[in-house]
Amino acid sequence: MSPMNGLSQLFPTFPFVPGGLFWVGLALIGAGLAGELGRRWLGFPRIVGYAVVGLFAGTLGRSIVDDNMIAQTRVLIDMALALALFELGHRLSLSWLRANRWLLFTSAAESLLTWGLVAWVLQWMGASPGVAILAGGIAVSTSPTIVLQLKNELRAEGQVTERLMAMAALNSIYAATIVQVATGWLHSEYGNLGAALLHPLYLLVGSCLLAWIVGKFGHTVYTRMSADDHYSFLVLVGLVLFTLALTRLLKLSMPLTLLLAGIVFKHQDRQPHVWPTHFGSAGSLLIIVMVVSLGLPLTAHDWVVGGMLALVLVVMRHVAKLVGVVSLGSFSGLSLRQCMALGLALTPMSGLAYLLMSDIARLYPSTGGPLASIILCALAIEQLVSPLIATWALRFAGEVRSNGGGR
Prior knowledge:
Blueprint: H1 20-42, H2 46-60, H3 67-91, H4 94-99, H5 101-124, H6 129-139, H7 144-154, H8 159-189, H9 193-222, H10 233-250, H11 254-266, H12 277-293, H13 300-328, H14 336-345, H15 351-363, H16 365-396
Helix pairs in contact: 1-2, 2-12, 2-16, 3-8, 3-10, 3-11, 3-12, 5-6, 5-8, 5-13, 6-8, 6-15, 6-16, 7-8, 8-9, 8-14, 9-10, 9-11, 13-14, 13-16, 14-16, 15-16
């Protein structure tokens, strides 16, 4: 054994040099306090407090937040998203969609309107066609993590809430599909014709196949465990994280795979298992980490490059979703009041948008750079504004069972 080299190995050295874990822990403490104080004093959903702390941490800690730390938080964002996407897929009832086809048609029309309007306006304002089309596709998405967090926190139940869950899942599928197809078009723009044809096909077919295998296998294993076993949910968590690892290993679409796997898992039974309440608790910490982490990469340069376009994206996105649902929602049995509430409640945008954007930026930095500036700025706005809008909308619909303040 080698001897000690002085007392420095036994006692702390001065000045202290805290590592990344110190600052992450401090940010999470601040996020938890900010979320609870905002809920108690202002009646805000906790997730707004988490987002505020994330933006402050990214701005004030710019000298501390480096590329390595941001890359490490990507793993946590992926894990939080994977859990939320699988749960949202599990909540989607195909039999309900078959019985209420107008809901499916409304969702498709609203998503196409969002994509088209955002892409057209951004291009009109000077964005390149590739950036505009991809930003429009990402804008279609509705955050699964924020929607589920708000539903659980507000204890929301009713027609609007159920449609919100279904349309959030469908919007995630649409956004992932649009971005994968648009990425194929981007391959052709850069002269990669083989990739333009094969890559989107591989992503779509491979993701569907992996989702079918995971859903079937997961259901087979889960049904052999006791339904009231408090630890059986660990099988689901392990299944989701293992699937996440497979999508990275095989370079498939994580959103499509996890959503479709949740759907396949649910529909193996005529009377599917009730979703375990423990799963939301298991993912709650990851959701906090995800929301805080999304504020870290944002810089002042991003606001200069993409701030105005991000603001336009947010406004056009909100308008398109509201108009799309109000125009067609009555055909699925909703009143005008419920249609307005649903259109507004669809506005949250969070980790899924970041995931889709960062995958494009990794493939084509010249397109991904301007796109990242727009999406990061849009996420900063949406994570502060859209949870408040969605909360008000669910209250407006009369489906909130919690007053949002106190205990």
